[in-house]
Design a protein that fits this description.
Number of strands: 0
Order of helices and strands: H
Structural class: mainly alpha
Distance between the termini: 38 Å
Oligomer: single chain
Helix content: 10-25%
Shape: flat
Strand content: under 5%
């Protein structure tokens, strides 16, 4: 699950010019949590859109 998460993260936000060695050497030291969304409102912060 962690490998999948970081692969998607680099796919979305990574720069194609970056080069990494295969694998994630510190993966066992990373805590990754999955949280279930209980309530999702349609509110938007007006401060972001002016």
């Amino acid at each position: 699950m962690k490998t999948w998460f970081f692969d998607r993260l680099l796919e979305k936000y990574g720069d194609p010019s970056w080069s990494f060695e295969p694998g994630y050497p510190l993966l066992d030291r990373i805590l990754l949590y999955e949280v279930r969304i209980e309530i999702l409102t349609g509110k938007r912060s007006e401060g972001l859109y002016h």
